[in-house]
Amino acid sequence: MEKIFDNTEVAFALKSDTELDRAYFLFKMISIEPLVKIGSAVTNFALNLNLPVEGLIRATVFDHFCGGINVKDCLSVVDKMQTKGVSSVLDYSVEGKEDEHQFDAAMKMTLKTIDFAKERQSIPFAVFKPTGFGRFELYEKLGEKQKLTAEEQEEWDKVVARFDLVCSEAYKNNVSLLIDGEESWMQDAADELVTNMMRKYNKEKPIVFNTLQLYRWDRLDYLKKLHEVAKKEGFIIGMKLVRGAYMEKEHARAKEKGYPTPICASKEATDANYDAAVDYMVDHLDGMSIFLGTHNEESTYNLIDHMKSKGIDTKDERIWLGQLYGMSDNISYNLADHNYNIAKYLPFGPVKDVMPYLIRRAEENTSVAGQTNRELGLIKAEQKRRKKE
After folding, report:
1. Residue 127: in which H helix or E strand, if any?
2. What is the pLDDT of residue 246?
3. Cα separation of the two ends of the chain
4. Which end of the chain is flanked by fewer CB atoms within 10 Å, N or C?
């Protein structure tokens, strides 16, 4: 098929020369692994000591990968991307909070993003992490089928109530809701809870979306079993498909605890697993809706080919593709230019609180073979093209 992802004029149409230079500088820095580790440690140290570094962070890495510090901050970015047919997913990217007050705050922020989304076609999805609404240890204990204490049960009931309130508001306002995947040892409890939300709110259309991390070898079987349940009980599956973000932690815990790693044996096996899940969902769109979260060009071409072979329209509402803001613009904007449904994850939150997210982004770019070099090559090609104009 036609290779569409090398068109840098379309990919970087929204970037000024200055923004393009900044992007090149950032990805060049990210490509040097020791620099990422040192920079992450120094940044955390400076923020913890309240040194005046927020302005520097905002002017560089934060503004490249984030929409702003609050929802209103993000709207100019949302509107700008929409001029090129790229929608947004407002993602409150504050991580690692552990008390009831903070869980309620995350819930309220998610409700706020739903409220913004209901008024704007440019924001078709809201999103949250399960551990944004409750303690990791609770999910872990339930996933291991351990009995909760009375106090823990009361705490878990609050987690369920937060899920239900947010899913209910999404349903009332016709806004789809993406629920992120996390570590395997807490995911069983999250899966069960999200499936219960699907049972309740996905009767007519897919409102609630779970996430499959397909670097796990068991996830395709899980999807097929869930499909049988959904057909029997009469609800629609919403599913975001990603490769996954916790590989090193998964391997380390499996080794420590003495159980087989849940991660596929190789990158090739992960790619095959991912593409098989995409194919399965496209073949069963009568009862499913898919959000393809990927920065992988070959997997994206695989989806495009499958859609064409089945005569599925590029604007079919049951198929969305998404990338992270600040990354893979060559995929996002070229797909939008070819009339596919595209939504960029647009993180936001206070600079200090979003730093764990930004550090994770930098580390992932460093560890994914070829990702950073691909970004650098595309930026250089566009800089060269502009000089010729």
Report:
1. strand 125-128
2. 83
3. 29
4. C
Please give the biggest Cα pair distance in the chain: 70
- Residue 247 pLDDT: 86
What the block records as the tokens of 303 is: 């989806």
Chain-centre distance for alpha carbon 357: 12
The domain ranges of the chain are: 1-66+363-389, 67-348
Structure tokens at 383: 């800089």
Residue 42 scores a pLDDT above 60:
no
> Span 67-348: which CATH code?
3.20.20.220
Alpha-carbon distances, residue 209 vs 35, 61, 236 (angstroms): 37, 29, 10
Distance CA(41)–CA(14), nearest Å, equals: 32
The answer to whether the Cα torsion of 25, 28, 30, 34 is positive or negative is: negative
Query: Which amino acid, residue 260?
Result: P
Residues counted in the chain = 389
Averaged pLDDT for residues 200-215: 97
Q: Give the number of C-alpha atoms closer than 13 A to the C-alpha of residue 305, restricted to the C-beta side.
A: 12
φ, ψ of residue 317 to 5 degrees: the values are -65, -10
Sign of torsion over alpha carbons 13, 93, 89, 284: positive
pLDDT for position 363: 64
Tokens read off for 55: 């302005």
